[in-house]
C-alpha cells in the first residue's frame, strides 16, 4: 500500500516529514505516504518538578510545581509562524521526541527558577511569593514561546526548606509573632477606648445628678 490514513487523538497532532513537504507539516489527520515519516505528539503533557534553588543570601529551598505545557493551537493574529509548526519542527528530528521535549521544558523551568531566586533574598521571596511566581511564569513563557510552547496551567506548591535551612519556618514564626503583637495592641487600644467611654459616661451621669 502506497499510503496510510493517520488520525491523531483528541489531545494529539501529527508531525509529518519527507517527500513533498519542505520542513514539517502538522495536522489532525492526513494521508501519509511510504516515503514520509509521521509522529503523533501530545499537545497537553503534564510536567511535575521539584526544583532546587538558592536565594541571593545563599539560602537553599525546594519549589514543587506542576505545569501543563503544550503547543499553542490558536496563535495570536500577526504571528509569522504558527506555534504548532514550531513545535512540530522541534520534535520531528528526534527519535525519542517526548524525552527531548521533557528535558527541554524541565531545563527551562529549572534554569529560570534558579536565576530569579538568585536575584532575590529569601525574605523577599517569602513576603511576596505571588510576585515571585508571576515573574517566573512570565520568563518561562518567553523562553517556551521560541519553541511554540504555551503554559496552559501552572500549580506551584508552597516553598519548602531544604534540610539544614529552616528559614521559611523562621519567617513564618516571625510573621505570626508580628500578627499576635498587632492583635494585642489593638485589643489594648480597644480596652483603653472602652475605659475612656465608661469614664465619660460616669462624668455625664454625675453632672445630671448634680443639676437635679
TrEMBL record:
Its main location: membrane. One of its GO terms (cellular component) is caveola. It is a lipid-anchor. Keywords: Cell membrane, Lipoprotein, Membrane. Residues 34-178 form the Band domain. The keyword Membrane applies. It is found in: Cell membrane; Membrane, Caveola. PANTHER family: FLOTILLIN-LIKE PROTEIN 2, FLOTILLIN-RELATED. Belongs to the band 7/mec-2 family. Flotillin subfamily. This is Flotillin-like. It comes from Leersia perrieri.
